[in-house]
Write a structure and sequence with these properties.
The complex is a heterodimer of chains A (353) and B (83).
Chain A (H helix, E strand, L loop, with lengths): L2 H22 L10 H11 L13 H17 L5 E2 L3 H18 L3 H9 L4 H20 L9 E2 L2 H20 L18 H18 L3 H11 L5 H18 L16 H18 L3 H9 L3 H19 L13 H24 L3
Chain B lengths: L7 E6 L2 H11 L3 E5 L10 E6 L3 H7 L4 E8 L2 E7 L2
Antiparallel strand pairs in B: 1-3, 1-4, 2-3, 4-5
Classes of the chains: A mainly alpha (353), B alpha+beta (83).
Chain lengths: 353, 83
């Protein structure tokens, strides 16, 4: 076994275990980590949307970005770079967020939901794989968002600085934020635990390049099974953890923060797979790359933040109590698929010399 | 393929397509691989090439080539970079 695979297994097992532990410490079920849900909660805390049940400044997100920032600074891998279609990345980031909120989870939470026995995540996984496969069709024909350029260090440090500021405000002036009194936003581990978990996972993900999209993409494009190992290790560790803590419940119905609208679970994660593969990584990976100085990824994260606000303000999200998205959400998702395919086609075929 | 006695060159690209095109141009001597972790913290596609020199690789590549490395066992030496 290669060193890379071994490291991915170790990191995956640790991350799976940390995810289960975060639920035991207070996070919502099957939501030790969810990049989409957590960025959405932060958008709510910043009063970008007014969905009262999903407002909290998640220290896990702050930890992920700062963990990647600190370790990449320490190892000399921090490189301030960007300029590869920033506006498109912002838009695609927003689309990925809307897709994720229709399913109710990012690819990371999809694995954690699967590990909790939530079979709706299996339907979503099928959509996710299809989305990545469609992106691979375009990648193999020349799709690219363009070259990056090296930038001033201030550019690459910006998102980490914003996260450090959020942490200071959360600890010393929490009254500036809105916090949920009930619902998923009110369920969280203590700040120090969430922050430590985020920092550790941020370091591990930066060192191993763990990515939920990259593993499936590498299998399709180059028949390489390295990155997928991390994905599988998280699943196995979280499954074992859920069985031990009694949080495993197999089935479609009555799963925590989930709905059973299969078509929309499939299509929601189809958008996440397609969009993330176009961006070059899943939402977790975008946070890590942003921490490493990639301002393109920082813009994808900004897009996700705004996308979360749009998703809630315009009521596009999948609703756990009303069984899936309403008509607005369904129309928006179909439009997003059309727009993503248009962007992919133009960036693949229109620029050929 | 990875016999250390052989001369192995690794070319990285700004996009997957650039790597694919080089593989197509070089044929059997080239293999598509994920970029090794030792080379980069980003996760694109690269090309491992046996029995070719740097110039041949550059000539066969399009404008999307990012860097070229020589593989020595488990380590890599940068021999050319676009930026």
């Amino acid at each position: 076994m290669s060193k890379e695979k071994r490291n991915l297994i170790i990191a995956g097992v640790l991350i799976g275990a940390i995810s289960v532990a975060l639920v035991a410490f207070g996070n919502p079920k099957n939501m030790g980590f969810c990049i989409a849900c957590f960025i959405r909660d932060m958008a709510g805390a910043a009063k970008m949307h007014s969905a009262g049940v999903v407002q909290y400044v998640r220290p896990e997100i702050i930890g992920l970005v700062l963990g990647a920032f600190i370790i990449s600074k320490a190892t000399g891998e921090f490189k301030s770079r960007g300029g590869s279609s920033p506006m498109l990345r912002f838009l695609i980031g927003a689309f990925v967020m809307i897709g994720a909120l229709i399913f109710l989870g990012c690819p990371f939470r999809m694995i954690l939901r699967l590990a909790g026995g939530d079979l709706n995540a299996l339907v979503a996984l099928a959509g996710f794989i299809c989305g990545i496969a469609v992106a691979c069709f375009f990648l193999a024909r020349g799709f690219s968002l363009g070259k990056y350029y090296f930038q001033n260090n201030i550019e690459g440090t910006s998102l980490s600085a914003v996260n450090a500021l959020l942490l200071v405000l959360l600890i010393f002036v929490p009254s500036v934020f809105a916090f949920s009194e009930k619902g998923p936003g009110s369920m969280h581990a203590a700040i120090i635990i969430s922050l430590a978990a985020g920092l550790i996972v941020g370091v591990l993900a930066q060192r191993t390049r763990l990515c939920m999209v990259g593993g499936i993409r590498d299998i399709i494009l180059v028949r390489d099974y390295t990155l997928i190992v991390g994905f599988v290790a998280i699943f196995v560790a979280a499954l074992a953890g859920n069985l031990i803590t009694g949080n495993f419940k197999l089935g479609f119905e009555g799963q925590p923060v989930a709905h059973t609208a299969h078509v929309w679970n499939f299509l929601g994660m189809f958008v996440v797979g397609l969009g993330s593969a176009m961006l070059g990584g899943c939402p977790l990976r975008q946070l890590i790359l942003a921490g490493e100085g990639n301002s393109d990824s920082a813009l994808s994260v900004a897009g996700m933040f705004v996308g979360a606000a749009v998703a809630h303000n315009f009521k596009l999200v999948g609703n756990a109590t009303e069984n899936g998205p309403n008509t607005y959400g369904k129309v928006a998702l179909v439009l997003i698929i059309v727009i993503l395919l248009c962007i992919a086609s133009v960036r693949t075929f229109a620029k050929k010399k | 393929m990875e016999n250390s006695a052989e001369k192995i060159i690794v070319a990285t690209f700004y996009n997957h397509y650039g790597a694919m095109m080089l593989k197509k141009a070089l044929g059997k001597n080239a293999v598509l691989r994920p970029v090794p972790r030792a080379l980069s913290s980003s996760c694109g596609t690269c090309v491992f090439i046996t029995d070719a020199d740097e110039n041949a690789v550059r000539d066969a590549s399009d404008e999307n080539i990012e860097a070229i490395y020589r593989k020595n066992g488990d380590s890599y030496t940068e021999i050319w970079k676009a930026l």
